[in-house]
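Protocol check, entry for the methods section draft. Step 1: assemble the input record (protein sequence plus ligand SMILES). Step 2: submit for complex structure prediction. Step 3: store the structure tokens unaltered in the notebook. Ligand used here: nicotinamide-adenine-dinucleotide. Step 1 record:
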Amino acid sequence: MADLLGVAVLGAGHMGADHVRRLDRVVSGARVAAVADPDTARAAAAVAGIEGASVHAEAAAALAAPGVQAVLIASPGPAHEEALLAAFARGLPVLCEKPMVPDSAGALRVARAEARLGRRLAQIGFMRRYDAGYLRLKSLLDSGELGRALMLHCVHRNVSSPPHFTSAMLINSSVAHEIDAARWLLGQELTAVTVLRPASSAGAPAGLVDPQFVLFETERGALVDVEVFVNCGFGYQVRCEAVGETGSARIGEEHGMVVTARGGAREEVPQDYLVRFADAYDREVQAWVDATRRGRVTGPSAWDGYAASVVAEAGVRSLTDGGRVPIDLAARPDLYAPAGR
Ligand SMILES: NC(=O)c1ccc[n+]([C@@H]2O[C@H](COP(=O)([O-])OP(=O)(O)OC[C@H]3O[C@@H](n4cnc5c(N)ncnc54)[C@H](O)[C@@H]3O)[C@@H](O)[C@H]2O)c1
Ligand SMILES: O[C@H]1[C@H](O)[C@@H](O)[C@H](O)[C@@H](O)[C@H]1O
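Step 3, stored output:
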């Protein structure tokens, strides 16, 4: 066990418990050293049967626990800033679930704190960058075969949203993924956003603006549209079509198992992200563990997390106030690469 990377997992809810399972049984080179959740029964349930994993109510206690060499943050977004800064103070490498920090001022504090250290410690959990389809699309766009990218058409549907989900969260929790994917795929910053409200679905909780239609503009004139619909009821569907001057490419229409029975056929559709992106989460966490063990930090950076928060905040302003909202990023510290690299 001594040469395995000892990881503290903060938050043992849907994602945290799944990451604990992944660290314990799927990825190589790591072990769960500690788990923190104010609901200690939940934390204890997540590590049941895992040898040497301590349980804590407080994140700070987990970071200080024996054997902890790295941190995976899977607590709710508003708790991330404190956890990231505490990890930085201890010099611990971090994999932090999205949104890195939901409000852009807090996200900038995190990026600047890391920049002051002069070295990266954080990888942000934009797992689509590890999905086989997104990786193929990125290399196709980079190869130039599609010509100059003009548009991305994106669909992001969830079967249902959790009870605490707000209209703003369709943008800063769900579309956060498209924001990062668009910056990464196109290698461009997003410069303005307009959010439109189609008629809300009768299947959405009262008062939730769902679906929403989001239109981003980019610095070199491409447009990115996103249909986000988090109570569609019929499946977890994430698609993206890139349209360039000389071709187009579409991902997210991979076929599930086709079942033929009782004289008819049906195709299975994933019902949630843990199924749809299972391979992407596995690759993401494995890449993080491998890089960390080599003393490196790769993948989406705290700057990518900051940019996503600024763009999402502008989107929420457009949702509430209406109209087109320009996006302004702070000056990028030298520590960080431009979008898409
Ligand atoms: N990458 C993805 O596709 C994906 C999918 C789902 C959720 N997420 C992200 O993962 C994070 C967690 O989401 P979830 O769906 O697992 O939420 P959840 O509500 O299921 O679980 C969150 C857990 O964190 C605990 N918690 C609250 N405050 C804490 C703190 N200060 N320290 C430690 N634990 C604390 C809660 O008690 C709860 O058990 C969020 O940032 C969310 O946006 C990412
Ligand atoms: O937190 C989740 C998660 O990020 C999923 O990947 C996304 O599809 C959901 O819409 C969001 O609520």
